[in-house]
Write a structure and sequence with these properties.
mainly alpha, 149 residues, 83% helix
Length: 149
């Protein structure tokens, strides 16, 4: 459970960083003259918190198969999309008139979701390499001790 919370905390910080980048890019493209207020700094934090809710809820102690992991990720993405879109636009704001904004937001959420998975993959791959090197060094030190006997 401790590891799961640590993973979600890491996801939170990755999400916040990526949301900042997306806000910068979208703001520069679609509203370059608009000035933002200090309250705008809360948006990435709120999106980060909302983005990790499904990950916290969908915790499982057992190892998942690849198919189960894919299904879980799809459910998680759809949950995050729904949570953030409802938080951003409200139930009454999800109208055809806002389709461009809703689509842009949904695509941004999906891109961030995929980027979090990719970034976490590279972090985990690096950690696995370090652990493998440490294990190999440990095994070699044990073998050297055995040879000395």
């Amino acid at each position: 459970m401790k590891e799961h919370i640590k993973d979600n905390l890491m996801n939170f910080f990755i999400i916040v960083t990526l949301v900042n980048i997306v806000i910068f890019i979208c703001g520069s493209l679609f509203a370059p003259d608009q000035k933002i207020t200090y309250s705008a700094f809360l948006v990435p934090i709120l999106d980060g918190l909302l983005g990790i809710i499904p990950g916290l809820v969908m915790y499982s102690k057992r190892e998942l198969t690849l198919k189960q992991m894919i299904v879980r990720n799809v459910i998680q993405l759809l949950s995050i999309e729904l949570i953030i879109l409802l938080f951003t636009f409200g139930a009454s704001g999800l109208k055809f008139q806002n389709l461009t904004l809703i689509t842009a937001e949904a695509v941004s959420i999906a891109v961030i979701f995929v980027l979090v998975i990719v970034i976490r993959f590279f972090f985990d791959k690096k950690s696995a390499k370090i652990m493998t090197a440490d294990l190999k060094a440990f095994q070699e030190s044990l073998a050297a001790k055995e040879d000395q006997k």
